[in-house]
C-alpha cells in the first residue's frame, strides 16, 4: 500500500514539476505558431533554451523572453517588428507567470487583445502601443500588482470595461463612452484623441492624480472646484472638449496656461479671459 502511495506521489509530483516547467515552452511554441511560424523564430523548437533570449529581426526589432530565477517566463517583449504582419498571439495567456508584457511599435500586428489576459494574475506592466490591434480594451484582472497599463496609439474602440483603473494611458484610439470612473484610483489618466463623452462637473480630482490629458474628446460640463485643489497635479490638458462655465480659482491654478483649457465651448476666468458680466449663456445642448 505505502509503495503504491509512494509511486502515486512520485508520479503526480514529477508530472506536476514537468508540466509547469514545460508550460512556458508550450506557450512559446504556440505563440510562434500563431505568429505564422516566421523564419526568424526558427530557433524556437522543442527543448530550446528560452530563458533570457533575444531573437532579433531587422535593425531594431526583436522578441525578448525574460525568466525568473526559477526559469519561469516573467517578461515578454516584442518590439519594432515593422514589416511583420501577424495577429496578436492569444497564446501569451499561457505564460502564467508573466509580469511584464511589452508589444510596441508593431504596426502590422492586428486582431484583438485576448480577454484571457485577465487570467495573468502577476501582470505588473502592460504596454501595447503603436500596433493595429482593434476591438475592445480587455477587462484586466483587478489586482494590486498591476502598476502600468499603456494602450496608446492602437486602433481600439468601444467603451471601457469598468475594471480598468490602474494608470491607464488610452490616448489616440477611437474609444467612446464614459471614462469618469477612472478618476477614482488612477494617478495618470490619458484619454487624448478619442471620443469620450461624460460630464466633468461632478468628478473629484484627487491629490494623487499627477497627470491628466483629456484633450480632443467630447467631455462636457464645467471644471470642478477640486481641479484647483488637486495638489499633485503636475500636467493637465483639457483642451478641445465641450466644457463651459467659470474656471475654479486659486489653489494650483497658477500652474496652468490658457492652452490647457483652450478650444472648449465656453470656459472663462483666469487663465482665460474673464467671464462677461452677463453670466455665460448656457451652451446649446450637444447635438
Ligand atoms: C530568486 O529570486 C527571489 C526574489 O525575486 C529571491 O527571494 C530568491 O532567493 C531567489 N532564489 C534563488 C535561488 O536565487
Ligand atoms: C520593410 O520593407 C521594405 C520594403 O520591403 C524595406 O524597404 C524596408 O527596409 C523594411 N524595413 C525594415 C525595418 O525591415
Ligand atoms: C482602424 O479601424 C477603422 C474602423 O474602425 C478602420 O477603418 C481602419 O482601417 C483601422 N486602421 C488600422 C490601422 O487598422
Ligand atoms: C501578485 O503577485 C503575486 C506573485 O508575484 C501573487 O502571489 C499575488 O497573488 C498577486 N496578487 C494579486 C492580487 O493577484
Ligand atoms: C476589485 O477588487 C475589489 C477588492 O478586491 C472588489 O471589491 C471589486 O468588486 C473588484 N472590482 C472589479 C471590477 O472586479
Ligand atoms: C492628438 O492628436 C494630435 C493630432 O494628431 C497630435 O498633435 C497630438 O499630439 C495628440 N495628442 C496626444 C496627447 O497624443
Ligand atoms: C494640449 O493638447 C493639445 C491637443 O493635443 C495640444 O495641441 C496642446 O499643445 C496641449 N497643451 C499643453 C499645454 O500641453
From TrEMBL:
InterPro entries on file: LRR_dom_sf, PGIP
Matches recorded under SUPFAM superfamilies: L domain-like
Domain of life according to the entry: Eukaryota
Keywords: Signal
Principal place of residence: other
Signal peptide residues on this chain, from the entry's feature table: 1-19
Subcellular location: Cell envelope
Keyword Signal carried by entry: yes
PANTHER family cross-referenced by the UniProt entry: LEUCINE-RICH REPEAT-CONTAINING N-TERMINAL PLANT-TYPE DOMAIN-CONTAINING PROTEIN, POLYGALACTURONASE INHIBITOR 1
Name of the protein in its database record: Polygalacturonase inhibitor protein
Source species of the chain: Rhynchospora pubera
Organism lineage string: Eukaryota, Viridiplantae, Streptophyta, Embryophyta, Tracheophyta
Amino acid at each position: 500500500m505505502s509503495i503504491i502511495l509512494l509511486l502515486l506521489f512520485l508520479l503526480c509530483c514529477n508530472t506536476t514539476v514537468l508540466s509547469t516547467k514545460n508550460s512556458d515552452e508550450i506557450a512559446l511554441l504556440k505563440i510562434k505558431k500563431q505568429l505564422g511560424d516566421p523564419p526568424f523564430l526558427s530557433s524556437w523548437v522543442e527543448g530550446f533554451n528560452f530563458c533570457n533570449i533575444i531573437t532579433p529581426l531587422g535593425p531594431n526589432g526583436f522578441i525578448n523572453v525574460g525568466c525568473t530565477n526559477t526559469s519561469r517566463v516573467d517578461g515578454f517583449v516584442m518590439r519594432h517588428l515593422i514589416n511583420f504582419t501577424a495577429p496578436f498571439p492569444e497564446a501569451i495567456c499561457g505564460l502564467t507567470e508573466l509580469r511584464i508584457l511589452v508589444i510596441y511599435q508593431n504596426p502590422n500586428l492586428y486582431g484583438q487583445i485576448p480577454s484571457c489576459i485577465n487570467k495573468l494574475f502577476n501582470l505588473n506592466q502592460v504596454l501595447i502601443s503603436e500596433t493595429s490591434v482593434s476591438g475592445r480594451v480587455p477587462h484586466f484582472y483587478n489586482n494590486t500588482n498591476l502598476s502600468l497599463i499603456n494602450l496608446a496609439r492602437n486602433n481600439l474602440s468601444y467603451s471601457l470595461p469598468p475594471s480598468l483603473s490602474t494608470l491607464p494611458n488610452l490616448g489616440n484610439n477611437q474609444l467612446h463612452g464614459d471614462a469618469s470612473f477612472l478618476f477614482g484610483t488612477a494617478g495618470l489618466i490619458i484619454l487624448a484623441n478619442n471620443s469620450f463623452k461624460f460630464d466633468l462637473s461632478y468628478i473629484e480630482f484627487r491629490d494623487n492624480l499627477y497627470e491628466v490629458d483629456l484633450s480632443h474628446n467630447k467631455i462636457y460640463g464645467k471644471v470642478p472646484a477640486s481641479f484647483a485643489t488637486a495638489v499633485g497635479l503636475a500636467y493637465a490638458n483639457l483642451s478641445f472638449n465641450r466644457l463651459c462655465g467659470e474656471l475654479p480659482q486659486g489653489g494650483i491654478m497658477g500652474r496652468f496656461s490658457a492652452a490647457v483649457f483652450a478650444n472648449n465651448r465656453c470656459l472663462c476666468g483666469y487663465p482665460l479671459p474673464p467671464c462677461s458680466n452677463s453670466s455665460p449663456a448656457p451652451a446649446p445642448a450637444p447635438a
